[in-house]
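Hi everyone,

Forwarding the result from last night's run.
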Amino acid sequence: MSQAEFPAPWRANYALLLLLLAYILSFIDRNVMAVLIGPIRSDFAISDFQYSLLHGFAFSMFYIVMGLPIARLADRHSRKWIVTVGLVAWSMMTCLCGTARSFFTLFLARIGVGVGEATLSPAAFSMLGDLFPKEKLARALATYSLGITLGGGLAYVVGSTVYEWFAGAEQLVLPLFGEVRPWQMTFIAVGAPGFILAIFLGLLSEPVRRSGTALGGVPPSGAPASGAPEVHHGLAEIGAHLRRHFRAYVAPIGSVAVLGILGYGTMAWYPEFLIRTFDMPRGEAGSQFGLMFLIAGSVGTLVGGWSVEPLMRRGYQDAPLRIILAVSALWILPAVLGPLSGSPTMAVWMAAPIVFFLNAHYGVGVAAVQFITPNRMRAQVSALMLFVTNLFGLAFGPTAVAMLTDFVFGDDLALRYSLAVLPLLVCPLAILLVLQGMRGYRQAAELE
């Protein structure tokens, strides 16, 4: 498919910008809890493990499950309206987190945030594949993946700043809800901007769907050309495709899933490690880690995503897997040394390589799946990838760290050791998962 058959570059980039902003807000809304651990634990009298259920499990349980049926809707209906409705829903539920009066009500509100956010990425991945040609898709996906670093970093910076501001202000009383704590007002403040962005997304044009390969290339023999009647793949056909290329899919999906345990565990607990180990003020810990996340994480996302194209031009069809393999190996050392740092300054600076590698692999993994997936399976296979990676990373990552702290070390101050042990467990497994699938991935890529 020629470049002329895709939308004008400015239209594609404008849509990418709106989707990126939505992704940024989604990560702010889901991760702002990382700077509110102390106040929430204090108000509800809960342990690290119980807090981790709020941060990870409550959000992810429906975020994971709803992603699959929503992806089927995205392969058949307007993707921009799916994203718009989801944005309104998760923004509303983030605000409602600020009205929670108990562990249970906050748990329910976090479930609502997860349901709303489940609409975004499957539909966004599908839209981007119809907005950008093959040679530009990896960069577009890497740019979209900046939402992880920008949103994740802003969650710490904005969240800690907003919390400190409300903590220093007079006690607030809201109509119908009564007196609210600073941590509750923080949720309300970060959730509100989503309603504004939803207006712009609602006015966005739905991109024309492209038939053929996952990357908008020339349709395979017998496939309809662009503009021909749409063909939808059923679950049986998708299952047959995945079984046929099982090892090829296990390599990117499996490795990104286990690396997600380390990534989400770090995102959830690193600021709290700075607070507990070095008595760093909550606002300072959130801001400093957030700035590192913004800068080093964004660089990692771009370096990882933009490394695919040069390698592919040199003939490496398994380029995405090679990058994931390198990240898995290089991430181990800083991920171990950072939590074991002897000073807060060193711990903050060690966060730079940690978050660089934390973000360098995800967009690459998504692109790897896109490269071997036919067009009309793309949203559903992307949702399957999100299901697996979030089941391991988002649901289990924060809890894995908390379980090590509570049940292995039995001491809140041992959080640093929990963070240091985790990479030794997950990174070697990620390496093995990539190596087992590289040959099968090359074979699958040749077919597409």
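The chain has a mean pLDDT of 87.

Cheers,
N.
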